[in-house]
Design a protein that fits this description.
The chain is α+β, with helices and mostly antiparallel strands. Helices cover 20% and strands 28% of the residues. Bound molecules: iron/sulfur cluster (SF4).
Length: 71
């Protein structure tokens, strides 16, 4: 499993929602994105969102190894 976290550097650009709407949505009150589910099965679409984030705010961690998954 992978864990998706979004840091406070998120500016709410919405790129992640556009790339991977099944994994991210925008919290309008916070003005930031949030993962729809924190823990997900590995999926390249999540890494596409990581690569497209202008703030490098999304981190994906492999829960078995504890390692950050590179986009
Ligand atoms: S792409 Fe990055 S900066 Fe934009 S909403 Fe998603 S996490 Fe935030």
């Amino acid at each position: 499993m992978w864990r998706i976290t979004i840091s406070e550097t998120c500016i709410g650009s919405g790129s992640c929602v556009g790339v991977a709407p099944e994994y991210f949505d925008l919290d309008d009150a916070e003005g930031r994105a949030r993962p729809i589910r924190a823990d997900v099965e590995p999926d390249e679409t999540v890494l596409d969102a990581v690569a497209n984030c202008p703030m490098e705010a999304i981190t994906v961690t492999d829960l078995e190894t504890g390692a950050t998954v590179d986009a």
